[in-house]
Amino acid sequence: MSIGLILLIVLALAVAGYAIGRARSVRTAGGDARKLHSLPGSYGQMAFLFTAVPALLVLMAWLLIQPIVVENRAANLLTPADIPDGSNTSLVMADVRRIADGLDLVMADAGMGEGELAAMRADFSDIRTRLGNVGVAIGANVTPAVFEAAKTYRADSKTGRTAMAALVLLIALGGLGVALTRIRPDFRARNVSESFVVALLIGSSLVAILTTVGIVASLLVESIHFFRLYPAREFFGSLTWNPQFRGNSELGIWPLLWGTLYVSFIALVFAVPVGLLIAIYLSEYASRRMRAVVKPAVEILAGIPTIVYGLFALITVGPFLRDYFAQPMGLGQSSSSVMTAGLVMGIMLIPFVSSLSDDIINAVPQAMRDGSYGLGATQSETVKQVILPAALPGIVGAILLAASRAIGETMIVVMGAGAAAKLSLNPFEAMTTVTVKIVGQLTGDTEFASPETLVAFALGLVLFVFTLGLNVIALVVVRKYREQYE
Amino acid sequence: MTDATATQTPPRRGGLLELDARTRRRNAAEARFRLYGLIAVGIGMLALVLLLISVLSSGLGAFQQTSLRLDVTLTEKALDKTGSRDPEVMKKVTTITYGKLLEQALAKTIEDKGIVIDGLSKTDIKDMISKDAAARVRDRVLAHPDLIGETVPFTVLANGRIDGYLKGRVTMDSAQRDSNVSPNQLLLADALRADGTLYKAFNWAFITAPDASELRPEAAGLGVAILGSAYMMIVVLCLSLPLGVATSIYLEEFAPKNRITDLIEVNISNLAAVPSIVFGILGLAIFINFAGLPQSAPIVGGLVLTLMTLPTIIISTRAALKAVPPSIRDAALGIGASKMQSIFHHVLPLAMPGILTGTIIGLAQALGETAPLLLIGMVAFVREYPDAPPEGFFDPASALPVQVYNWTQRADPAFVERASGAIIVLLVFLLAMNAVAILLRRRFERRW
């Protein structure tokens, strides 16, 4: 039974529950809805929730847990001898899964029944060719143990699916039954169904916490795997980044961190003055008409996806900087460079800095401006000596947030900064960043056993800690500043 | 007295407001500061204009494509030796045979029109036609076997380089140096264009066709990517709107002030600032490796983007809920509604425009997001359209921004034009979504 069908049946039951619950409540009150504690609809709602919610929760939990259980059972059938040299359990299990999926196709192709499948043995028939015939390509020859594991996998998945369908439908029916039997005129249906809804609301607000837990857990677990395979001292101490396919990689984080910080620095040097001046100009000088044009334009800049900035770096800014700056000055030949990525990222950050600063500048009380003007200060003097100092903590917060954005930005540096891990001061040279290497190590066919792949998780952890730290500092700074005026 | 007047500076011109050096300096500083501000605004505007011009100028070409009108004689001898018209038998004839027919058709056209170019080789003629064309002709013939034996007019794509020549990307100079195109072909293209065999037309295939391999940029399209992006947006909408609204209602209306509530709030504001690539790592580790969902599937992309969009939706929903005045709640409670009823029947409908605006803006952000999708395998080369939902959510697909990235990684410069064209499509979608959001806000937002 497919999941879609189960969902549909559960929903149909729940809707039926609503109708029956509603009708039944009126009937128990002898047709007079005024004798009921709650509105008839509340009874229906209760029946709906009792039918749908537990069943769907069980369905979700089952879908999450079943693959793990089935996988473990199948993996237990494999002895270490079944795993070829240069491979590992997870690779073999991937084959097992693919064979198990392919078996259905083979059976349909050859018109086999379950019994014939059980009798099929890898030592007698060529499974790999038969799977190949139905379009399932297997990398290695199928050994008997792997084939048996695949058969178990398939059988367990099937039983699991059936059991799940039965259980979910049973729970839905049970919930419906419980709800319907409890319907009496004095039953507080509204209170029950409303506390049910509050529970649901709380549940969905926990998704945010679960997400954070998921992020931290996935980063930590895989990072620990990585540090088991590769010493942490090397990772944090080595100055070379040189991954090799055949092991013996040097995976020092410093060249990547250097590139990240260099690009972010250039971006901030460009974005902070420009963004701040735009904010000041718009809030202190610009006419109404100008504001009406410039502000939305800056917001458009903020709404443009980073891939567009990446393309801009790749086809316009990069070649321009190379042809007019790097080559004439003899600083480099590459169109992707720290400067390219930094400048384009600076453009991306302008709206970020300007809108945050705009808010902060506008929050400075008008009385402070008026006082300054009253003392005879010009507008620019007021801005420089009164408004900016008053807004400074907020602006520092904004800059820190912009810095955290810059460090975590991916597409611009992937397309603009290059891929060579270098420690160099020349801004027209291609360098690489933490995010570029995360993408580089994790795209394509990923195999989760080598330090070359797992290093991406350690890099992600460093990135996460870095940006989180910056954000927390920024929030603290901003919060402190707010306390002054409110 | 006279002495004093003699030593004085010339009489004041502006009466009381004579500018001394200090005032002048201060005014100059004021003007300078103003100018800096203007320059900064100018830089911002210039950046926006340059960005748009750069994308538009390199991308608009992708919406035009060069094609050839050819009368192809589908000889029975070549395509169906047995004469049985059995599709199974005819499938054995490969695209190479069809390519030869196309080549003959073009050669015949050249001969008929009396075009003579010195040194034009057979390969030159063959390479005028896209490598994709033979496959399309074959598909059509397999679908309509009765065409065999007739001379059928076909419209086939021209080679990417010839297309580039008509768009000004390839010139006689560059053709000299390029091994993929010869100057003779360009002369031939000029001649064919003059009599209308070769022409440029609007390129629907760019929007509907699937991606094509490295060697045939002229056939590459956005169909699978648009479909994949649409699927992901459906998933994001269906999950993040209910989840986000439920979370906001709880935090704004029910949550007691305690540690857990604080924890949730801090979490949400932190999630809003976590780099997008970290969400990609989460998707890879949890949804693909742990939960065993398939790679490159829109469902995984949708889940990851949902988690990224949630903070945006929650923040705007809470603002919208906060904006509904307490008098509405009080009035509802006063006539006997429960708290839940007052919220769901009164507050929520009034906050809906704000919520929808925030949701659309969140969706627009999600639509342009690239980095996390790279990690969950959306970069894979996908030629098959995904099935209709819900099964289609689990089929491999691409996504618009990822397709852009994919094309920029390819060697042929024609793909840069395609990538920029894809960006234009993406920007059009974003523009439309933002326009709807602004319209909603203008039309329905109430000020209390």
Automatic annotation (TrEMBL), chain A:
It comes from the Bacteria. One of its GO terms (molecular function) is phosphate transmembrane transporter activity. SUPFAM superfamilies: MetI-like (SSF161098). Residues 257-474 form the ABC transmembrane type-1 domain. It is found in: Cell inner membrane; Cell membrane. Belongs to the binding-protein-dependent transport system permease family. CysTW subfamily. Part of the binding-protein-dependent transport system for phosphate; probably responsible for the translocation of the substrate across the membrane. This is Phosphate transport system permease protein. It comes from Albidovulum denitrificans. The lineage of its organism: Bacteria, Pseudomonadati, Pseudomonadota, Alphaproteobacteria, Rhodobacterales.
TrEMBL record, chain B:
One of its GO terms (cellular component) is plasma membrane. GO terms for molecular function: phosphate transmembrane transporter activity. One of its GO terms (biological process) is phosphate ion transmembrane transport. The keyword Transmembrane applies. Residues 226-437 form the ABC transmembrane type-1 domain. This is Phosphate transport system permease protein PstA. NCBIfam families: 3a0107s02c. It holds the Pfam family DUF3333. PANTHER family: PHOSPHATE TRANSPORT SYSTEM PERMEASE PROTEIN PSTA-RELATED. Gene3D superfamilies: MetI-like. SUPFAM superfamilies: MetI-like. Belongs to the binding-protein-dependent transport system permease family. CysTW subfamily. Its main location: membrane. It is found in: Cell inner membrane; Cell membrane. The lineage of its organism: Bacteria, Pseudomonadati, Pseudomonadota, Alphaproteobacteria, Rhodobacterales. The chain crosses the membrane at residues 35-56, 230-251, 271-293, 299-321, 342-364, 419-440. Keywords: Cell membrane, Membrane, Transmembrane, Transmembrane helix, Transport. It is a multi-pass membrane protein.
